[in-house]
Design goal:
Spore Coat Polysaccharide Biosynthesis Protein SpsA, Chain A; 3-stranded antiparallel sheet; elongated
């Protein structure tokens, strides 16, 4: 989470097409950002009394004039938001023996409007063949979906399906009867990260949690006696970064 590499991470505003310059006062000095990001990145430095350097963060909205010209005639602000839309690797823990096929079916339908990069459904090796066959039939032909057979109840499902991950955030839910995902979650998470510029390594809720891929990779393969979620918590505590772990109810506060 915190390292020499992170300390060297930075973004430069000088060539960004969204940087603002006050030509009526000082045309050589940056006056702002079209997305108000200078106010949202507290650790910054004015270089040569001209443009800003954002320290410790990558500004994912930074675009040069070449990009601007390539997309001439388009709404550039909306386009860069679209390009940075966060999609998720969804992991559904469906290993409970109390679940029926319709519990899976209803939940898959409920998340059909989510921004999904990959979907992994974990089921127990003891799952009735009728249920598993229906599930395999349900996702057949969908390249971004797969089913994982879990043979060990103690396994960390998130870590076991890491080879399927393609997104920057991983969403994990333990399926139970009548579980309903938060309807506006994707929009809320995108606003928090892309508009409010919040750093999040772990988002928690009683029914699900979300891990950042960067933090997941930093704890991957460590102690097998802890889940990835718990390992991230330990890492955050050791580096005094508990503020990067938030509850879903506080996401937009």
């Amino acid at each position: 989470m915190e390292s020499k590499e992170k300390q060297q991470v930075f973004s430069i505003c000088s060539n960004c097409c969204f940087a603002q310059w006050d030509y009526s006062k000082d045309p050589k000095k940056q006056s702002g950002c079209d997305f108000n990001r200078l106010e949202k990145f507290p650790d910054k430095e004015l270089i040569h009394n001209s443009y800003y350097k954002i320290k410790g963060r990558i500004c994912n909205f930074c675009r040069n004039d070449e990009w601007f010209e390539e997309n001439k005639g388009k709404d550039h602000e909306e386009l860069v938001k679209f390009e940075n839309t966060i999609k998720f690797d969804y992991v559904i823990d469906g290993t409970s023996s109390l679940l029926t096929y319709w519990d899976f079916e209803n939940y898959i339908d409920d998340i059909s409007y989510f921004y999904i990069k990959t979907l992994t459904i974990a089921i127990s090796a003891n799952c009735p063949s009728e249920l598993s066959n229906k599930l395999f039939e349900r996702i057949k032909g969908r390249d971004n979906c797969n089913i994982m057979i879990v043979t060990n109840d103690e396994v960390d499902i998130v870590q076991e399906c890491h080879k399927k991950f393609k997104a920057t955030y991983h969403y994990f839910a333990r399926l139970k009867k009548d579980l309903i995902p938060p309807f506006y979650f994707c929009e809320e998470f995108n606003k928090a990260v892309n508009e409010d510029c919040r750093q999040i390594v772990l988002l928690e809720d009683p029914s699900f949690y979300v891990l950042s891929n960067a933090c997941f990779n930093s704890v991957f393969g460590n102690s097998k006696t802890q889940t990835s979620r718990d390992k991230v918590k330990v890492l955050a505590a050791n580096q005094k970064k508990e503020n990067l772990i938030i509850k879903y109810e506080d996401l937009l506060k």
